[in-house]
Design brief:
Blueprint: H1 2-13, H2 24-56, H3 60-72, H4 75-86, H5 91-114, H6 118-126, H7 131-161, H8 174-183, H9 186-214
């Protein structure tokens, strides 16, 4: 066991391991590209849905259950299904990652909107605000902490799952996991897994710190 971790440490700090198109720096950039793009697309889909159902109170049951269904989908199975339909491309990976990210964003956005005090919304309407003004100037700012929590959770889930890109012969940190399994190279498998875990933890801590800074004056 000691030898395994010593070899892992050597693998992680090796200069050769960080250079070139197969190096950690390049694979990390690919992994972050897949993750950020998928999360942005998911946010573009899920935020309007969550805001709409939270503002109107309509369609909540259907939207939340569809989101839960998306969370229950087997990610690798979805990749294989889309891969068979579309051929070799990044589409299966992006579709699977977006489907994974949408539920957290929808549910947290709806929860944030639903948590806004009804008296606050009534007071805003009493001031003469129209529906879209209440949404954008009252409900959205108050719901923002929970919305950001949903985005953070979605991004971390996507980062941890983006290793599936290597399953269909693309890049990212998952390349080390799948290549290591194929070559029976346990050090490479562990190295890929450790890198994914470190990236997920670092992003989570960074986004948590950003939330605390942005909302430090909000009441608990």
């Amino acid at each position: 066991m000691y030898e395994l971790f010593a070899n892992l440490g050597g693998w992680l700090v090796s200069g050769d391991q960080w250079s070139g198109t197969d190096g950690i720096a390049h694979r990390l950039a690919e992994h972050l590209q897949y993750s950020l793009l998928a999360t942005l697309v998911a946010a573009a889909i899920a935020l309007p849905v969550g805001l709409l159902i939270g503002h109107t109170g309509r369609g909540a049951f259907l939207a939340i259950n569809l989101a839960s269904f998306g969370r229950a989908l087997p990610t690798v199975g979805l990749v294989v299904l889309v891969f068979l339909a579309s051929g070799l491309s990044m589409w299966p990976v992006y579709i699977a990652l977006v489907a994974l990210a949408v539920p957290s964003i929808v549910t947290n956005t709806y929860a944030g909107m639903n948590a806004v005090d009804a008296d606050v919304k009534d007071a805003a309407r009493g001031q003469g605000m129209r529906g879209h003004q209440v949404l954008l100037q009252v409900e959205l700012p108050l719901a923002l902490p929970l919305i950001m929590t949903g985005l953070r959770l979605a991004l971390i889930q996507v980062v941890a799952t983006a290793t599936i890109a290597a399953y269909v012969s693309f890049g990212g940190l998952g390349r080390y996991v799948f290549d290591g399994l194929a070559q029976r190279d346990l050090v490479q498998v562990l190295g890929g897994a450790v890198l994914v875990a470190v990236v997920a933890v670092v992003l989570d801590l960074a986004l948590s710190a950003l939330q605390r800074v942005l909302f430090r004056h909000r009441p608990a």
